[in-house]
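Work package 3, deliverable 3.1, input record:
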Amino acid sequence: MRRRAALLSFLLPLPAWAGDCPLDLGQGTTGLVVFSSHYMITFRPDPLQIEVGAPFALVMNVCTRRGEAAELVRVEATMPEHKHGMNYSPTVVPVGNGRFRVEGMVFHMPGSWELGFDVRSGEEIERLTHDIVLK
Amino acid sequence: MRRAALLAALLVAAAPVAGQAPLDWTPDEIRAVASHGPWPPPVAVDRSNRVSGNPAAILLGQHLFEEPRLSASRQVACGDCHQAGRDWRDGRARGFGLVELDRRTPSLWNVGWQHWFGWDGASDSLWMQSIRPILDPREMGGSTRGVAKLLREDRQLACGYERAFGTAPGADDERLLVDAGKALAAFQQTLVTPRTSFDDFRDALVAGDTIAASRYPIQAQRGLKLFIGANCASCHFGSLFTNGEFGDTGVPFFARDGEVDSGRLGGIARLRASPFNRLGQHSDDATDASATRTRHVERQHRNFGEFRVPGLRQVGRTGPYMHDGSLATLDDVAQHYSEVSPDRLHSDGVPLVRALGLSGEERVDLVSFLRSLDSDTPKLLPPAPLCP
């Protein structure tokens, strides 16, 4: 019973069209999900545990409601409380089939970070965000 | 009878100090204290340095560290500023090589775990940082050719080089200079501070051992609570008490009349311009993974006036303080953070550095905590001969 409730809480927030988007991020792993009315992004850090001051990458999958190709334009991270970003500028590398690898992420302080993903499948760029608290 | 007396003495020694009970620590505070350990961390290994951890290279590095012939005048060695008997610094407000410098000589304790070197982070490896003062005309004023010639022509150094690197010194001068830096780095990676009374307290608190925890002075406990409450660990993070990055702490920008020290802003420019950074041909890391920071570091306006966050282990014995040595004592540092001007720091959000408004008693508590990060260090023995 508890297991079913946990499963529902994971599935319910996803949009109805999410079934067409692969949650798999390679090597049998899944990750965190952020979505809007048009985009859904699945991502996980590599390594999985983010440490203060240690470089990490993001393994990402970006897909759209209508199934057209999408581009991950940019990834940023900021500390909204202190109004500053990272000391490093990450690079986005497309690896095919809607997958991307983002290299050069470093959270140099503990606290609340906001990840910003700029995605585009047409003219306009849309930003999706996700909050992470690092202790 | 004698055994009973001995047992009683041992029990007294194991008991909390009379009249002292440890302060109450919340789960969040215990988590914060735990984040500053355990100590020591795993041994530092630099993949860009093929002789990192190599005993023969460490020995060669120790010899080179005290070698004045690396300098132009043949009179200035690394160890003249980073003095073994003075916690690997010189105790001056500003360093002095061939002339007086603009910044303080930092201690080298625990330097092997850093990832940026120098107050402005202009070096991304300890071997690159070790080359810099040799060539700097204000510090040692040496030359690539001079270092290479010394390694080739001095029989002991040449023999030590061959034992460390597996081949006799070759004809490539720049490679020999870099290898000298790598041997110097291998030696400096061995400079690790011993455990401290803070580490014993931290471990006792994590283990729930109140008897052991109560041996840590109440004054230091109060200071530690202040340190946590003021979010000092945002920058002075982890077991090294530094996140290894850079910050503006409100110290005046001027290095001398009419001349500013741009700090990290200039440091990144120098890093990128150097042939000795991790992206260059001299890195030994075939995977290139250790160059991630160098490849992605971003030069931003806010880097102006930022300087490397120093670790705090051995801080009570390594003054004066700040990058320019402008504060003589730890109490001066506590007073600086107590009164620092928000106008000088220009923060748009919640400022990381703000006036703490500490009372005199609180400053004493904070300093007491900081001094609990000090330890007596073993005397370094003179190095064995390179090739007896």
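Confidence is low (pLDDT under 50) at residues 1-12 of chain A.
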